Amino acid sequence: TRELFQTRRVVAKALGMKWGAYHLARPGNPVEQANNFLDFADPAPDDLMALDIEGIDPTQWMSLDDAEEFVRQVHRRIGRFPVLYTNGKTAQYI
Question: The whole model's pTM is what?
Answer without folding.
Answer: 0.91
